[in-house]
Specification:
Largest interface: A-B, 70 and 56 residues
Strand order of the largest sheet of chain B: 2-3
Radius of gyration of chain B: 22 Å
Structural class of chain C: alpha+beta
Order of helices and strands of chain B: HHHEHEE
Largest sheet of chain C: 9 strands, mixed
Helix content of chain C: 25-40%
Chains: A alpha/beta (about 500), B mainly alpha (about 100), C alpha+beta (about 500)
Distance between the termini of chain C: 76 Å
Shape of chain B: flat
Strand content of chain C: 15-25%
Radius of gyration of chain C: 29 Å
Oligomer: heterotrimer
Number of helices of chain B: 4
Structural class of chain B: mainly alpha
Strand content of chain B: 5-15%
Chain lengths: ~500, ~100, ~500
């Protein structure tokens, strides 16, 4: 089998055994990117020389006898929201076009330390605001299952890259579902770790109290290996949890749900859910039952208020986080003709440098925080957050994990919701609760609806990340037995450009 | 009745430092009105006695020791600056003592 | 600038009662900044003390400096505040080029320290200044305005920003409205700022140098007609940067506001700027729209919940505070209230105490610092503490006097030498040959000569007018060019004239 079809764990073993070099693996992926990314548009930046230099360094470290981790020499696609000193970082925004950060994000530094080879930076909705990558200032990424459809978002470049075999692994950030939803609609695995389980230092902030870096992969085990490589306490991030990383790799290897109590979230079903999505979800629940899990229905009455609460909290935080993009210290500057004031240049630059969705959210957040409205909007949303937390706590007294569809529909056609923000926001309906409360959650493929992938979401308590891997791996193993291979094998082949 | 007036939208744009044209303001006013109406649902459930949650996890007291760490060089610090002079960031004239 | 009619101060106070409020910003003297590891040295080359965090680069995150929190808790405790059990940082959102994130990490409705007070004394009367809150925040960068004629912000062509100061820990201390101070209002404001500075300095958490901006006062003033119950509209005069200016700014605002009110005008709630040169305030640009800072809890920082054990540990670590120390010193040095006040106002307490600690007698130590050295400091236009002489050196000079090796006149020459950089007191004595004439034989012959030259005076002494001996002592001192021990000379004169 060609190198680009292999998973990260297997590549890691081949590299460790000396059967293949990091340079060879990197070249194979760079070739694949060159061949298909013209159609997929997963990458914003690829630099063959920088990548191969990293690969060579890993080969040298190995040759020198250095003890290397299981992913040393494995290539990875890195979401353009993480700062990198050797590649530009734009967060998908025109306002940061060409910016070269003078520092590496903690996740970036840990990838380098673990010997992962960064292939390039992936496309995303501008400042991670969106569910489709249609909000990127640098073009739309395409869903490898159907190039007319969105690959999800905001980490759509990262999901597309993995689904299109351009990289075995990629990074993402999940603020309201930005890892799980793209994973679901491209038929791959995506994990939102417990908030604070992975460092936000060097992640260009969207909503600080929600942003969570996490992995994409084509298997649960690969995702767990990447999770382990970059997670853990970071003294540079005050909200980072100072505890050991949950044993996610072990959990992924010992997929076993016998006796596990699984709760089906009652509120995430019915109207608005595509029939095929509901059917695949029901089958997945039956599958879990057949594997020995005890399934019960659980009511989380406030989960339906998570979406409106999220669309107040996230814009409020972003309106403040994005204030720094003001044309003074870095990034775009517009209209500085020597007569205009700093105020005017700031306003002109921000109007030109930000796309419509970003402006919308900044305005919404400014509104929600402004005097006279704070209590009715931001304040209420924070109270809803408490109610959702209580729902989770009550649920986890009864069950070990909660399950739901990851997203109500499969990948929608490009342009379908582009100017209907409220319809677009529904894509995150099921994923948002875990962000508001910091819980761990995963999306694993659970079948097709009209030929497009459907995701199963598994949610666990805070710091119960190993549970989502354990259940996810059990579902993956059983379904792959049924299908005779991964779901992604059913995806149409992309034509390779010469 | 709309949730937000055109004047309020214009005020928000100024507060947000966004120089938006009339067309853009009109368009945004309609969209914000729609979104605000939708998110106002939060007011249905949260009673006064529910404490607010600002952080996902209930961590407290995270401090670092008072130790000096390496800085960026001035070249690094100014590397992204749209304009620099005398090792400082050059910015357009500032109108007010404090915004 | 419109010309405003000022009202005479006494007239203003006859008609109106001032209400004050003072907000003081103090930069803490931590080694590193509030939320990152950059150093905090004053006066470094521009943009050499910056990192991704204090430059507000995308992706960077703040982490709270523990020493800064200890510093503010100490200030809170010294101001008799309650240290809250749980509080958060908040973001104060507004755009300004010297603020890298376009929000300031501050505290809003949950300050760390609340409900304290500071007693200050003016003309023998004690005023209790109530402290509403003490909260933690970060400083901004500094702009240099280029072009135009003045170097000021208005009329400048562009500005140059240095972010070295951005992120330095800043403590803000806010008083409750200060009422019923009458015509003492400017003095009370100054006394408060002085006492606060002394207090913070004694804690060792800041160098509180107003001229370097590590302590800055914003002064709120409003007037209400005498007998009225409702307070008037207040103005806020920003960045008043010396103790004297605090007093002058209050006085000037009282005169200005009284003039406006008496002329039938209204006070505009606004920010004003104090000008050291004229002693007057001028209006800041009036705002088109009211500020809306959109405060919300800082999501990048977790709440602070200082444990009671920690707070008590810090309380136990507090040094003797200035007020207690003054009471002790007054007793130990046997000072009148007036003498104590002079010593305090001269900034001489530390110096005298250190001199005493080196073995000098308190009265002598106070005499040198308050007279000779204060005079020289005034001449040179520097603070007493900034004179190039140490308490050890002053104590050494006094020790030489006690040992009879120097007299006061010679001592003054030694101080002159030390201040001129000629070395230690011993070196100056050696170089300048400043020794009391202690050779009894030589002194005796000088005295004999003086008695012979002043026979009429000597006769008076012989006749019992001992006081007249002073003239003979003076003559001896003159003849020895001041190097004789005046005390010994007097003894010998009286002895020789049979008057002892």
């Amino acid at each position: 089998m060609e190198l680009v079809r292999k998973g990260a764990a297997e590549l890691g073993e081949l590299l460790a055994a000396g059967e293949v070099s990091a340079v060879e693996v990197a070249e194979a992926h760079l070739d694949r990117i060159a061949a298909v990314d013209g159609q997929v548009n997963a990458f914003l930046h690829v630099d063959r020389d920088t990548t191969l230099a990293q690969a060579r360094k890993v080969d040298e470290r190995r040759a020198a006898g250095e003890e290397l981790g299981p992913l040393a020499g494995v290539p990875i696609a890195h979401k353009d929201v993480f700062t990198t000193t050797d590649m530009p970082t734009t967060a998908g925004s025109k306002i940061l076009e060409g910016w070269r950060p003078p520092y590496d994000a903690t996740v970036t530094a840990r990838l380098r330390q673990a010997g992962l080879v960064i292939l390039g930076k992936t496309n995303m909705d501008e400042f991670a605001m969106g569910s489709s990558t249609e909000n990127s200032a640098y073009g739309i990424s395409k869903n490898p299952w159907d190039l007319e459809r969105i690959p999800g978002g905001s980490s759509g470049g990262s999901s597309a890259a993995v689904a299109a075999y351009e990289a075995p692994l990629s990074t993402g950030t999940d603020t309201g579902g930005s890892i799980r939803q793209p994973a679901a609609v491209t038929g791959i695995v995506g994990v939102k770790p417990t908030y604070g389980g992975s460092s936000r230092y060097g992640v260009i902030a969207f909503a600080s109290s929600l942003d969570t870096p996490g992995p994409f992969a084509r298997s649960v085990l690969d995702a767990a290996l990447l999770h382990e490589a970059f997670s853990g306490h970071d003294p540079m991030d005050s909200t980072s949890v100072d505890e050991a990383v949950p044993p996610v790799v072990e959990a992924a290897r010992h997929a076993d749900v016998d006796g596990l109590r699984v709760g089906v979230v009652k509120e995430f079903a019915g109207e608005g859910y595509e029939a095929g999505v509901s059917a695949r979800f029901t089958e997945a629940v039956e599958l879990l039952e057949s594997l020995g899990a005890k399934v019960v229905e659980v009511s989380c009455p406030h989960f339906t208020y998570a979406l409106p609460a999220y669309y107040l909290i996230a814009p409020s935080e972003c309106s403040s986080n994005l204030a720094r993009f003001d044309a003074m210290r870095y990034g775009l500057r517009v209209g500085d003709d020597g007569t205009r004031s700093a105020e005017e240049v700031m306003a002109l630059t921000r109007a030109e440098g930000f796309g419509p969705e970003v402006k919308r959210r900044i305005m919404l957040g400014t509104y929600a925080l402004s005097s006279g409205y704070y209590d009715a909007y931001y304040g209420k949303a924070q109270q809803v957050r408490t109610l959702i937390k209580r729902d989770f706590e009550a649920a986890f007294e009864q069950v070990d994990v909660l399950v739901s569809p990851t997203t109500p529909t499969t990948a929608f056609p490009i342009g379908e919701r582009a100017d209907d923000p409220v319809a677009m926001y529904l894509a995150d309906l099921c994923t948002i609760p875990a962000n508001l409360t910091g819980n761990a959650a995963i999306s694993v493929p659970c079948g097709l609806s009209d030929g497009l992938p459907v995701g199963l979401q598994i949610m666990a308590p805070v710091l119960g990340d190993d549970r989502v891997y354990r259940v996810g791996a059990a579902v993956e193993r059983a379904l792959e037995d049924r299908w005779g291979g991964p779901l992604l094998a059913k995806a149409p082949e992309l034509a390779e450009a010469k | 009745m709309s949730a937000i007036t055109r004047d309020e939208v214009s005020h928000l744009a100024r507060l947000s430092r966004l120089a938006l044209g009339d067309d853009e303001l009109d368009h945004l006013a309609a969209q914000l009105d729609q979104i605000i109406s939708a998110v106002a649902r939060v007011q249905e459930v949260a009673a006064q006695d529910i404490p607010p949650t600002s952080h996902a996890l209930p961590l407290t007291n995270v401090y670092r020791p008072d130790e000096v760490r390496p800085c960026l060089t001035p070249e690094q610090a100014l590397s992204g600056a749209p304009a620099a002079e005398e090792q400082r960031f050059r910015v357009p004239r500032i109108l007010d003592e404090e915004a | 600038m419109t010309t405003e009619t000022l009202m005479d101060y006494d007239e203003a106070l006859a008609k109106y009662e001032p209400v004050l409020g003072i907000e003081t910003h103090i930069e803490l003297g931590t080694a590193s900044k509030m939320f990152c590891g950059c150093p905090t040295e004053f006066g470094a080359e521009p943009n050499t003390q910056v990192c991704p965090v204090c430059l507000g680069l995308p992706g960077s995150l703040p982490v709270t400096n523990r020493a800064a929190i200890e510093g503010i808790i100490k200030i809170g405790l010294a101001l008799n505040c309650e240290i809250v059990e749980w509080c958060r940082f908040a973001r104060k959102n507004y755009f300004y080029p010297d603020m890298p994130k376009n929000f300031q990490i501050s505290q809003y409705d949950e300050p760390l320290c609340v409900d304290g007070y500071l007693d200050v004394e003016v003309d023998g009367e004690t005023y209790r200044i109530e402290i509403e809150r003490v909260h933690m925040e970060e400083d901004t960068g500094k702009s240099l305005h280029v072009g135009g004629s003045t170097g000021r912000i208005h009329g400048a062509d562009y500005s140059l920003v240095d972010y070295n100061r951005a992120g330095i820990p800043l403590v803000e201390i806010v008083t409750r409205p200060i009422v019923a101070t009458g015509d003492k209002a400017p003095l009370v404001a100054r006394a408060y700022a002085t006492e606060l500075r002394e207090l913070v300095r004694s804690l060792g958490v800041s160098d509180v140098r107003m001229e370097q901006g590590s302590m800055r006062c914003d002064v709120n003033v409003s007037l209400m007609p005498r007998g009225a119950r409702e307070w008037g509209t207040r103005t806020e005069t920003k960045n008043v940067n010396s103790l004297r200016s605090v007093e002058r700014a209050v006085r000037s605002e009282i005169e200005r506001q009284a003039g406006v009110l008496a002329g039938g005008g209204r006070i505009v709630q606004e920010t004003r700027h104090f000008h050291e040169d004229t002693g007057r305030t001028t209006s800041g640009r009036s705002k088109e729209e009211a500020q809306d800072y959109r405060y919300f809890p800082e999501p990048d920082l977790v709440p602070m919940a200082p444990s009671r054990e920690w707070v008590e540990e810090l309380r136990a670590s507090l040094p003797e505070l200035p007020a207690a120390r003054r009471r002790r010193i007054q007793a130990e040095w046997n000072l009148s209230d007036l003498e104590l006040r002079d010593v305090v106002n001269a900034g001489a307490v530390d110096l005298i105490e250190a001199t005493v600690a080196q073995g000098a007698d308190p009265a002598a130590a106070r005499k040198w610092w308050m007279n000779e050295l204060s005079r020289r400091a005034t001449e040179q236009g520097v603070e007493l503490a900034d004179l190039p002489i140490t308490p050890e050196q002053v104590a050494r000079v006094q020790a030489m006097i006690t040992a009879g090796e120097l007299n006061d006149k010679l001592a003054r020459k030694v101080f002159e030498g030390v201040l001129a950089g000629e070395g230690t007191p011993d070196e100056v004595v050696a170089k300048r040959g400043l020794k009391v004439v202690s050779d009894e034989g030589e002194l005796s012959s000088v005295i004999d000569q003086v008695i012979a030259d002043n026979a009429d005076v000597a006769d008076k002494v012989r006749a019992g007018k001992v006081a007249a001996a002073g003239a003979l002592v003076g003559a001896v001192m003159k003849a020895t060019r001041g190097q004789a021990d005046a005390g010994r000379a007097r003894e010998l004169i009286l002895e020789k004239l049979g008057a002892s």
